[in-house]
Structure formats: structure tokens, C-alpha cells
TrEMBL record:
The lineage of its organism: Eukaryota, Metazoa, Ecdysozoa, Arthropoda, Hexapoda. The keyword Signal applies. The keyword Signal applies. Keywords: Signal. It comes from Gryllodes sigillatus. Residues 1-19 form the signal peptide. GO terms for molecular function: odorant binding. This is Spermatophylax protein 3. SUPFAM superfamilies: Insect pheromone/odorant-binding proteins (SSF47565). InterPro entries: PBP/GOBP, PBP_GOBP_sf. It holds the Pfam family PBP_GOBP. Transmembrane segments: none annotated.
Length: 143
């Protein structure tokens, strides 16, 4: 259960945000799936499988979703928001919290200097996917 909770946190950077469970998530997705960030159902399915989008609209969709949930601010990664989220979700699980904070630090360093949500969002997801794989998180998400 703790692995699932940690996986959900790591995936919150997109996976949880796009899981489609509640009306707020659907509202965010509808808001972001317009104009230059409009994507197809196939692109959405690929993203839910942790595939990083290559199209400009897919990249901007990711950036928009992450911005709407608070993970990006001013086009850059809000590591402070991510840390607050991790601490709130994992306060009872110090080991998972430690891993989440490592993930946040690593990815914060990886995307430092990016200030365009269409670039930062996909780069952040790429970092999460790569680093989380080493921690066994992606396998937990996919299970």
C-alpha cells in the first residue's frame, strides 16, 4: 500500500493529475486540451502510459496540466509545492517521503533554467520517469 501511495505522489506530476477520477481533474484536462495544447485521445492514452509527448501540442498540454495543479509556476518547476505535497501525503511514511524528496531534488536540478511550461513539463516528466524507474516507482504505477 505504501508503494502505491508513493507511486501516486510521483505520478502526481502528471499521472495522478490525468487519471480522470474527479471533476477537478476533468476540468483541468478540458481547460488544457484547447488551442495550441489540444491533444488526441491516442496522445492522452500514451501519456497515461508514461510516454513523454513529442508533439508541440502534447508538450504544451503536459505543461498546462502541471501548471494548473500547481507543479509549475511561471513556467518553472515549483519544488516547494512538490515538497509540500510529498510531506502532506507521506507524513506517516518517512521512508517513502525520503525517496519522494530525493526525486523532487533530482528533478528540480534537472529542469533548473527552464521557464517555458511547454519545455519544463515534458522535461520534468522525463526526469520523473527516468529517476523513478531506478526506485521501482514506475513498475508500481504500471502494476
Amino acid at each position: 500500500m505504501h508503494a502505491a501511495l508513493f507511486a501516486a505522489l510521483a505520478a502526481a506530476l502528471l499521472q495522478v493529475a490525468m487519471a480522470g477520477g474527479d471533476s477537478k481533474v476533468k476540468e483541468i484536462m478540458n481547460t488544457c486540451n484547447k488551442g495550441s495544447s489540444a491533444i488526441s485521445q491516442e496522445e492522452l492514452k500514451a501519456m497515461l502510459s508514461m510516454k513523454i509527448p513529442s508533439s508541440e501540442s502534447g508538450k504544451c498540454f503536459v505543461g498546462c496540466v502541471l501548471e494548473e495543479i500547481g507543479m509549475l509556476k511561471g513556467g518553472g518547476f515549483s519544488s516547494a509545492f512538490a515538497e509540500e505535497l510529498a510531506k502532506a501525503k507521506l507524513q506517516e511514511h518517512p521512508e517513502e517521503l525520503g525517496e519522494a524528496l530525493k526525486l523532487i531534488k533530482k528533478c528540480s536540478d534537472e529542469v533548473a533554467g527552464y521557464d517555458d511550461k511547454c519545455e519544463t513539463g515534458p522535461k520534468l516528466l522525463e526526469c520523473i520517469k527516468d529517476f523513478a524507474s531506478g526506485l521501482g516507482i514506475i513498475e508500481a504505477i504500471s502494476a
